[in-house]
Amino acid sequence: MKRSVAILSSAVLVVALMTGCGKAEENAQQNQNPSSQTDGNKQGNQATDANDPLTQFPKLTLPYTADAKAVVVEYQGGTITGQEFEEFLRVINFMNPQQGTMIEAADNQALKAFAREYTATKILASRSDDAMKKEAKDLADKTFEKIKGQYMGFLGKDEAKFTKLMEGQGVTKEMVTNQMALINESITVLKKNISDNTLKQEFDKMDKASRTVASVRHILISTEQRKPEEALKIANDLEARLKKGEDFAKLAKEFTDDPGSKENGGLYADADVSQWVPEFKDAAITQKVGEVGPPVKTSFGYHIIKVENRKEKTFDEMKEQLRAGALESGYDAFGKNELDKLITKYNVPASKNEAAPK
Fold first, then answer.
1. Of the four listed, 15, 51, 92, 265, which is most buried by Cβ atoms within 10 Å?
2. Residue 302: strand, helix, or coil
3. What is the pLDDT of residues 120-157, one digit of tens each?
4. Which SS3 state, helix, strand or coil, does residue 306 take?
5. What b/e readout covers 28-49, taking b as 16+ CB neighbours within 10 angstroms?
6. pTM of this prediction exceeds 0.70
7. 358 CB contacts (<8 Å, ≥6 apart)?
């Protein structure tokens, strides 16, 4: 998991519902395969199922079996049972079906990672005070309504279908809000040591590139299958045509070798310039806004660049981004310095996805 579950703040959670539709669409395609049909009635039933929005959100299939009362993790001050771990995984799937796909494919190592993340959340949450708990629960209730609203959008605003969806996924409102409250509590505990003054100090240490966003159009002439001199000649010709007034977007769609921006007419809008390779980044920061610059050579080839707008973010604009980074760092420090010392034993059930030993 690229990002700790404990840092998935329900305050900013965006439920990736559409990314969870892959399993359902795949099932629907299989259902529509004529070779899998035995009679006309079956075909009709499967076609109906394929059009049912509930099939887009199937129940999570756990890649293991475990007794509800079995202890999955032992840590100083508590345990995690099989039931708790299952509820945690089902809620994660409900909040983000893309995570559900990862859970279903989890091997032994991945299951242990999920168990470790949940244990971290519980330990951190246990350090919250009553005020933190109330704030976390209120936020969880509000976030549940937002998630419900997103699901309802897919279900034609049908309350009965949403109820059926939750039953089908094996979750309840109480289960979801309790898990989200735990996550919120753990985040609040980490946040209490992150002051605005600390964030301002981090902001002041940042270089200009790290604070700059820009909208940049470019045309890439790749050197992957061309000699550098051939690519440079094409780039120079395009620069000349652009300076004579030809449409940048039109030429980008025709000539660029960058598939990521081709359909947008070569445009990367409001992007953090620090993500780009050094030569491209430097051009995005220094090139005069609104003018087409000379070809810029990178490891990809030659780029014709036009900076459409550029802005250096203020501290207030970056504060929450910096706070998120500080939360990540705080959680990482907790994991390295405390978590693995507090966990005394793992009893995570074996994954069915794990290859049997030879």
1. 92
2. strand
3. 999 999 999 999 999 999 999 998 998 999 899 888 89
4. strand
5. beebeeeeeeeeeeeeeebeee
6. no
7. none
